[in-house]
Description:
five-stranded parallel beta sheet; Aldehyde Dehydrogenase, Chain A, domain 1
Amino acid sequence: MLAxxxxxxxxxxxxxxxxxxxxxxxxxxxxxEKLDGxxxxxxxxxxxHACELAGLEWEETGYGNARDKEMKNRFACLxxxxxxxxxxxxxxxxxxxxxxxxxVGVPRGPVAALCSSLNAVSGLASAALVAIKSGNAxxxxxxxxxxxxMRKTADLxxxxxxxxxLPENAVSCLSVPAKRGALELMSHPAIRLVLNSGVDRMLDxxxxxxxPVIYGGTGNGPAFIERTADIEKxxxxxxxxxxxxxxxxxxxxxxxxxxxxxxxxxxxxxxxRGAYFMSEQEATALAAxxxxxxxxxxxxxxxxxxxAIARRAGFxxxxxxxxxxxxxxxxxxxxxxxxxxxxxxxWYVEDDWRHACEKCIELLLYDRSGHSLSIHSxxxxxIRQFALKKPVARMLVxxxxxxxxxxxxxxxxPAVTLGSxxxxxxxxxxLSPFNLVYIxxxxxxxxxxxxxxxxxxxxxxxxAATEPIPDEFEELRRSLAxxxxxxxxxx
Length: 491
């Protein structure tokens, strides 16, 4: 039976989708320069509220900490905003020397967007900026665990956008959180694309909408420390990354695989930086608490610091930066093989990089999100082998995965929504304006149909084919040429 909230949410979804379609028509007339000005104005305005929104997000969700969320919010506004400057993604993208238009960027929207409560403000802010930049109206379905702060963020964006010339309803939100309302929004005929920024439980509903889906979660990415690595730097990078916002940021390391010749050195380097290596009994006690009976994460253990997690598991790890659990095998019965949204790191040891490669693949296939992997090595051949063989959307080299994966400290496009492989969505890269547009390509005549028919009949063709036409198609080719001749003879 439908509850009142369901009905209200569904009705509001229809209205918002129709309003977004109206805003989309107005945005279609905007130049890239005008869209750029609006996007940067919104980025600067929202950055001024980064601290306030971080505090509100932490108070509402209890995930992570306000200090790191403020940094993440500023990155989502200014880091992403700066990366958007100068990009040409709508209108004329390419012309030839004669001035003929060859490619045109066309917005896909309107877009329906879902953002995780783990990155509520930063995920919403970055998605809105990318949508504005690419000329797309966007409607957010609020997450029930972060509805208040997400609504405030969306209101601030809409207000700043309106002051810079953004059409009304170009950025809006479904203020009554309900699954049926979200499905109604995504399924509405006016909606052309669905953006799911890490709401795993809604992925099946997104697919039911029948619309293309861009999906970006957090993933179960391993970090490999190879024998030639700078061990001290690797330890520093991994711990800093896993500690940031208590381990809930996209692409943060989820486990560590260590090359056996440097295992003792790596273990000591981690210990010097506050890593607490749990005993077998402590690791077992913690594993029993990580997930509920139905497989969902225990909310009170998500985005919580290491010391608090240890206390809840019944042991003392005061001052610990991360909790480390020694593991040997990947097993469906082992909670440590799953994505752990907390400063907890399973620790595997392998004899060499080839065995480590197999272990990383095993871990990635177990999770089947194909999100990210990081490697710490100074051996270019090993790095190359990992780059060629790993089933992931991004590989991060000698860097803290949390920051490098978002493009904050790497050459990747700055983003909070990071696509996965394994076909979970239509894009595997970091979310950019190019994911929200399609390219219209214009072809100009370069020869007549008669010339084409003559080439086909004579067996000489200056087309781009690099291989000869197989003998079994010879008769088809001649039939095509004869048909074209008859058509022109009749004219």
